[in-house]
């Protein structure tokens, strides 16, 4: 069962969520096809006071209704003032981009930047998107019912513009994707400081150990296609080391009540 939140009532957004019209993978599955992930957004950091329209790409996020974005708490900052929809290559204008201003940041009150507990945040757009007409290329991703779990080995996809080289923080120009499988909770107990919290986090791994989420992918979605019902936002990328250890995502199903209250 799925829940897709509306900006007004956090109910099904007119019955539409989690649909991608493009399903074909690009060779080797590294570069996402343009338009494949219509809920994918990029947050923008506006740090130039003399030119407020200038920004640098920051984190990822997911459209969950016509006016709300779900991302990571560690990505939230007062200078994150806009998000970009419909982007693919961050260095090119492709005609599908739409920049929307952010009016509110809602960071989970339990967020702890030392152990990454409750690493989740909501961003509210200044104006709702017109998903029927003007912004019909974009679509919210479905949300899971509260406290549901995924079986081990469930295949999902993480997306973002993060670094493709672990040793350097250099964003990818093109939107990337990597297939990850849900792994056992014990697999993610590899960092003594960032203790894995199995009731609030998901552990995911790619069997090709060279493929991971990395710096710059933070806040981006772990999208899981469950049967024929559409894509579901099961995780928000929180932390990892870009190398041979599994990736850790905030478990969205654990935060559905908070998301509903935060509207």
Q: What report would you give on this structure?
A:
It is a single chain. The chain has one helix spanning 256-261, and strands at 2-3, 40-45, 56-63, 68-71, 80-85, 98-107, 121-125, 143-144, 155-160, 176-182, 201-205, 221-225, 231-239, 247-251. The protein is mostly beta strands. The chain has a domain at 143-253: Thrombin, subunit H (Beta Barrel). It has a 6-stranded antiparallel β-barrel. β13 (231-239) and β14 form a beta hairpin. The longest helix is centred in the C-terminal third of the chain and has 6 residues, at 256-261. The protein starts with a strand and ends with a helix. Residues 1-12 and 23-29 have low confidence and may be disordered.
What's the short story on this structure?
The chain is mainly β and 263 residues long. Helix content is 2%, strand content 30%. This is limulus clotting factor C.
Instruction: Tell me the CATH architecture of one domain.
Output: Beta Barrel
Proportion of strand residues: 25-35%
CATH homology group of one domain: Trypsin-like serine proteases
Radius of gyration computed on alpha carbons: 17 Å
Q: Kindly state the mean pLDDT as a whole number?
A: 81
Give me the number of helical elements: 1
Tell me about the largest β-sheet. 6 strands, antiparallel, barrel
Strand order of the largest sheet: 2-3-4-7-6-5
């Amino acid at each position: 069962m799925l829940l897709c939140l509306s900006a007004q009532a956090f109910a099904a957004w007119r019955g539409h969520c989690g649909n991608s019209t493009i399903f074909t993978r690009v060779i080797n599955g590294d570069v996402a096809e343009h338009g494949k992930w219509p809920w994918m957004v990029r947050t923008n950091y506006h740090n130039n006071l003399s030119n407020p329209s200038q920004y640098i790409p920051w984190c990822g996020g997911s459209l969950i209704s016509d006016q709300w974005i779900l991302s990571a708490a560690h990505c939230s900052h007062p200078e994150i003032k806009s998000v970009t929809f419909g982007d693919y290559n961050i260095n090119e204008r492709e005609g599908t981009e739409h920049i929307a201003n952010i009016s509110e940041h809602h960071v989970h009150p339990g967020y702890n930047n030392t152990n990454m507990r409750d690493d989740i945040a909501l961003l509210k757009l200044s104006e709702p998107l017109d998903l029927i007409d003007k912004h019909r290329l974009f679509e919210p991703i479905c949300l899971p019912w509260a406290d549901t779990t995924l079986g081990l080995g469930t295949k999902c996809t993480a997306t973002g513009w993060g670094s493709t080289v672990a040793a350097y923080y250099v964003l990818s120009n093109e939107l990337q994707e990597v297939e990850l499988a849900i792994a056992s909770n014990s697999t993610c107990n590899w960092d003594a400081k960032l203790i894995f919290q199995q009731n609030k986090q998901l552990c995911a791994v790619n069997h090709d150990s060279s493929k991971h989420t990395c710096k710059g992918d933070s806040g981006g979605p772990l999208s899981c296609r469950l049967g024929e019902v559409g894509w579901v936002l099961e995780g928000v990328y929180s932390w990892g080391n870009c190398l041979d250890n599994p990736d850790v995502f905030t478990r969205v199903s654990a935060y559905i009540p908070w998301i509903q209250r935060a509207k």
